[in-house]
Amino acid sequence: xxxxxxxxxxxxxxxxxxxxxxxxxxxxxxxxxxxxxxxxxxxxxxxxxxxxxxxxxxxxxxxxxxxxxxxxxxxxxxxxxxxxxxxxxxxxxxxxxxxxxxxxxx
Length: 106
Prior knowledge:
By secondary structure, this protein is α+β, with helices and mostly antiparallel strands. The chain has helices at residues 2-22, 32-42, 45-58; strands at residues 28-29, 66-67, 71-73, 88-94, 97-102. Helix 1 (2-22) packs antiparallel against helix 2 (32-42).
């Protein structure tokens, strides 16, 4: 938990203070900073760090860009009768692999 919070702080700082000054320049959807936050929240902190790092390296003119959602590996055990707010949708991609999509609330 503490490591995840430490990894999120510089990303949030970048999103609120540095990124607005340069405008939208990411070649992917979700943006690289959003991708990193989603990975950190849904996956192991070390895996999330390296996946985000390689995603940032791919965000240049040599790669096409496009839609690239994070893919996480999880074992899901359903619990019935518990009310929780849904923040992420996990769309099945294969055996124990899911695509992470953020649920939008207004």
